[in-house]
Design a protein that fits this description.
This is Claudin. The chain is α+β, with helices and mostly antiparallel strands. The chain is built from 4 helices and 5 strands.
């Protein structure tokens, strides 16, 4: 019962991280315009994402446009496209494999060793997807902070951390946490089963010893 609850908890956390990864990949709020120094045009907000940039005016009207060319993006955003797509695919595969390997599912008619291997694979994929997602999120955040404190960069071109980056950190943490839960679950099950298999062996040895001792006593009494 406890193992099933642990698997369901890991699946829910992993599913939350997967949905968050999909959302971060499509959100335009990676870079948000900064209102500092002489930049007093506060009624217009600029959002820059992986696929499009948007301009929101006075919280009423918003216009978005897809990037005309990938080459027009900065190197960090170009790399973030591929990494976030890879992280989304890995998280989705990990979620599906975790469902197949859970005890409550009957998709695979196999032994508990195969189930453990499937769950362990799902856990490793969850951890890998979380690590892959952390790379672009931290890279873009580092670029934004470096440009913000760089005096050479024009004030109008300086940006702040968008909501997508914060959501990306949370989603990556959920993916890594789900992977850790599945991996620890497999390790605990392996220790429990190894202990369960060693106990009957000791019992059989002790029983055989008593049986031999009884036979020896019986043969001696007959001899007398």
């Amino acid at each position: 019962m406890v193992s099933s609850a642990l698997q369901i908890t890991g699946l829910l956390i992993g599913g939350t991280g997967m949905i968050g990864t999909f959302a971060v990949t499509g959100m335009p709020q990676w870079r948000v315009s900064a209102f500092i120094e002489n930049n007093i045009i506060v009624f217009e907000t600029i959002w820059e994402g992986l696929w499009m940039h948007c301009i929101r005016q006075a919280n009423i009207r918003m216009q978005c446009k897809v990037y005309d060319s990938m080459l027009a993006l900065s190197p960090d955003l170009q790399a973030s496209r591929g990494l976030m797509c890879a992280g989304s695919v890995l998280s989705f595969l990990a979620f599906i494999i975790a469902i197949i390997g859970m005890k409550c599912t009957r998709c695979v008619q196999s032994s508990w060793q195969a189930k453990d291997c499937i769950i362990l694979t799902a856990g490793l994929l969850f951890i890998l997807s979380g690590a892959v997602e952390l790379i672009p999120v931290c890279w873009v955040a580092n670029t934004i902070i470096s440009d913000f404190y760089n005096p050479i960069v024009n004030v109008a071109q300086k940006r702040e951390l968008g909501e997508a980056l914060y959501l990306g950190w949370v989603a990556a943490f959920c993916l890594i946490a789900a992977g850790a839960i599945f991996c620890c679950f497999c390790r605990c099950c392996e220790k429990t089963r190894s202990y369960g298999h060693s106990a009957p062996t000791h019992y059989c040895t002790h029983s055989q010893h008593l049986h031999r001792k009884t036979e020896s006593s019986y043969s001696k009494s007959q001899y007398v």
